[in-house]
Amino acid sequence: MQEAVFDRIARFYDYEQGSFTKDIPLYTGYAKKCKGEVLELGCGTGRILIPIAKENIRVTGLDISNEMLKLAREKVDKLDSELKIHVQLIQGDMAKFSMNKKFPFIFIAFRSFQSLMTKKEQGDCLECVYRHLKDNGIFILDLFAPRHDLLAQVNRSVYLGEFYDRENDVYITRRAEDEYNLASQTLKEDRFYEWTDKQGMFHQQRWSFELSYLFRYEAEMLLEKHGLLIEHVFGDFDKSPYNYYSGEQIFVARKV
Ligand SMILES: C[S@@+](CC[C@H](N)C(=O)[O-])C[C@H]1O[C@@H](n2cnc3c(N)ncnc32)[C@H](O)[C@@H]1O
């Protein structure tokens, strides 16, 4: 099987992002309100899926990366047996999946949708979402909000801070070289993980990936084209409205 982009850094993922929790209440809140089984596309290591399962809600997670799913499975295995049976993890592509059930709530968190690089893949994904949503079901999509001043720099070097690698008892620093392609609306990032081990040896791991970016009305039109009617556009996980400097664009749409 072909290696997925996130396979290469799966082991770092929870050290890097595990402390980011402020989006979780939004998803658990909708999961409770929608009553029924939830589907997360691009569920990764289960950062959000596990808290949903802990609310005693049935949840299915789909991800293309086996390494990310392996970590999610380890967490599922640690759940109490009555919660564990409510979680299903599936390896698959969010742009072409088919299950013989429908969900009242589907979401794609933390920019996972932006790994889909073409309009075709994005459209195919939303078609799959539509087919798997129950009538009146809710779909949430979180994208980063592109800013013209950052895009205009075209090339940027960014220091991303450090995190603690518990497994090896070292601090790992992260920096990135970003390149925006304004015509294709894509971002290519070379991310460098660097650390010095206990023997004083320097290590560097390079991770390259690409993301697409969408502006607010493009995303709204794309969703509405696929039968997903916008109910809210939030700029933060506390449900404050979107504004240009929000950082996030969180679309809450309903299947009509
Ligand atoms: C930024 S991580 C987010 C993981 C998790 N949702 C979270 O919030 O921590 C993006 C995830 O999307 C997955 N992904 C990327 N492209 C995908 C695709 N075409 N189909 C399914 N999953 C995909 C990656 O493997 C990765 O686990």
From TrEMBL:
<keyword id="KW-0808">Transferase</keyword>
<dbReference type="InterPro" id="IPR041698">
    <property type="entry name" value="Methyltransf_25"/>
</dbReference>
<feature type="domain" description="Methyltransferase">
    <location>
        <begin position="38"/>
        <end position="137"/>
    </location>
</feature>
<keyword id="KW-0489">Methyltransferase</keyword>
<dbReference type="GO" id="GO:0032259">
    <property type="term" value="P:methylation"/>
</dbReference>
<dbReference type="Pfam" id="PF13649">
    <property type="entry name" value="Methyltransf_25"/>
</dbReference>
<dbReference type="GO" id="GO:0008168">
    <property type="term" value="F:methyltransferase activity"/>
</dbReference>
<protein>
    <recommendedName>
        <fullName>Methyltransferase domain-containing protein</fullName>
    </recommendedName>
</protein>
<dbReference type="InterPro" id="IPR029063">
    <property type="entry name" value="SAM-dependent_MTases_sf"/>
</dbReference>
